[in-house]
């Protein structure tokens, strides 16, 4: 597939095609059936390293052992469930795992309360079904169906948002590695290399919890929030640079101070304590994840580029922070106001940030 400038967000296997090719060329370790890379090379692709003379950029910043467990799971017949609060890069990791293993991250089912069973199993072209009856030509395979037939990784996002009966359609697929097509009296059997990566949110659990029968068929890896502020600043900086490039926003080398402030505010509010541990603060109802910090800074860059002088300043991120923190207009506004007055106002070097937040908070 050729990536053109008009594409807002290339698939991982397209955007990082050079890295994947370099890893494949230098990878001399055993590969599971149908895998494009060995498990060790997949981990290098996710966490960064070298492939010959090419530097592999880190896609995920977090505990190496967690990534190794996730990759090792996919090399077995067990499916993988990535669990965590919003903003812990579950979808990001899922996409890059599928790209590195199968060379195809597009076999995706997006879970919602309205997701139908056909999204997991198969549907029908009703014009052909009415005209000719059930036939292979009338069959419309789901992404999971195509992954089974093509020995690839299928991705299921927000599994707990799916209705229970739709979730349970996975049980036969994961346990028997086959999908019966009762209308045709046949089945599709999974080829070696097929597996499933699902994601679920353990803060907002969605509409339906997983049944114990389905949960037993997954190995669960919990993705944590970044351990320390420096890791989170690095994650936000890297993703903001990538997003800014795709949105054609001016690259900024001097945005680190504002990124650090946004990350500090989010970490303190979600932990309920200032960085030095001396002051307890109230936490708002919002999650204040790393993903939201990335969104706030990217929005600030757009404001600076289109309505300012191109330099990211406190007044460019203040509105985004307010929108991220104050989800409940009554309770969260009180929490935010107290935090501004008791923490931000007294912090050395943060006077401009305090004024910008105070002005937009009213």
Layout of secondary structure:
Elements: H1 12-15, H2 17-26, H3 39-47, E1 49-51, E2 54-56, H4 64-74, E3 79-84, H5 90-102, E4 108-110, E5 122-124, H6 126-132, E6 139-141, H7 143-150, E7 153-157, H8 164-167, H9 169-176, E8 178-181, E9 186-189, E10 195-201, H10 212-215, E11 218-222, H11 229-246, H12 256-271, H13 290-307, H14 314-325, H15 331-344, H16 351-361
Parallel strand pairs: 3-10, 3-11, 4-7, 7-10
Antiparallel strand pairs: 1-2, 5-6, 8-9
Summarize the structure.
With 362 residues, this protein is α/β, with parallel strands linked by helices.
Structural description of this entry:
The chain is an alpha/beta fold and 362 residues long. The protein folds into two domains: 12-222, P-loop containing nucleotide triphosphate hydrolases (Rossmann fold), CATH 3.40.50; 229-361. It has 16 helices and eleven strands. It has helices spanning 12-15, 17-26, 39-47, 64-74, 90-102, 126-132, 143-150, 164-167, 169-176, 212-215, 229-246, 256-271, 290-307, 314-325, 331-344, 351-361, and strands at 49-51, 54-56, 79-84, 108-110, 122-124, 139-141, 153-157, 178-181, 186-189, 195-201, 218-222. It starts with 11 loop residues before the first helix and ends with a helix.
Strand order of the largest sheet: 4-7-10-3-11
SSE string, helices as H and strands as E: HHHEEHEHEEHEHEHHEEEHEHHHHHH
Number of helices: 16
Q: What global shape is seen?
A: globular
Low-confidence stretches: none
Largest sheet: 5 strands, parallel
Number of domains: 2
Architecture per CATH nomenclature, i.e. the level-2 architecture of the largest domain? 3-Layer(aba) Sandwich
Q: What is the highest CATH level, the class of the largest domain?
A: Alpha Beta
Measured by DSSP, the beta-strand proportion falls in: 5-15%
Q: What's the helical proportion of residues?
A: 40-55%
């Amino acid at each position: 597939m050729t990536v053109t400038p008009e594409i807002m967000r290339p698939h991982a296997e397209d955007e990082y095609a050079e890295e994947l090719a370099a890893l494949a060329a230098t990878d001399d370790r055993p590969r599971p059936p149908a895998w494009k890379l060995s498990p060790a090379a997949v981990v290098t692709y996710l966490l960064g390293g070298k492939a010959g003379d090419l530097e592999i950029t880190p896609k995920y910043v977090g505990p190496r052992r967690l990534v190794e467990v996730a990759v090792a799971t996919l090399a077995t017949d067990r499916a993988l469930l990535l669990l965590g609060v919003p903003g812990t890069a579950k979808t990001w990791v899922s996409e890059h795992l599928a790209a590195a293993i199968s060379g195809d991250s597009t076999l995706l089912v997006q879970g919602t309360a309205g997701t139908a069973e056909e999204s997991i199993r198969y549907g029908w072209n009703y014009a052909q079904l009415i005209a000719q009856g059930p036939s292979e030509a009338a069959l419309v395979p789901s992404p999971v169906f195509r992954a089974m037939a093509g020995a690839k990784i299928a991705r299921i996002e927000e599994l707990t948002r799916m209705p229970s009966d739709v979730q349970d359609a996975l049980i036969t697929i994961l346990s028997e590695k086959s999908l019966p097509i009762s209308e045709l009296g046949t089945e599709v059997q999974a080829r070696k290399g097929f597996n499933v990566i699902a994601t679920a949110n353990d803060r907002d659990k969605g509409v339906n919890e997983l049944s114990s029968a389905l949960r037993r068929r997954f190995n669960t890896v919990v993705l944590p929030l970044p351990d320390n502020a420096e890791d989170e600043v690095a994650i936000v900086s890297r993703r903001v640079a990538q997003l800014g490039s795709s949105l054609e926003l001016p690259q900024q080398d001097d945005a680190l101070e504002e990124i650090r402030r946004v990350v500090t505010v989010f970490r303190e509010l979600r932990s309920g304590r200032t960085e030095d541990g001396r002051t307890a603060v109230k936490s708002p109802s919002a999650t204040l994840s790393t993903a939201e910090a990335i969104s706030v800074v990217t929005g600030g860059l757009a404001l600076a580029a289109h309505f300012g002088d191109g330099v990211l300043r406190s007044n460019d991120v203040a509105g985004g922070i307010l929108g991220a923190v104050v989800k409940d207009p009554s309770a969260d506004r009180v929490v935010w106001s107290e935090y501004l007055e008791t923490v931000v106002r007294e912090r050395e070097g943060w006077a401009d940030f305090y004024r910008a937040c105070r002005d937009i908070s009213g």
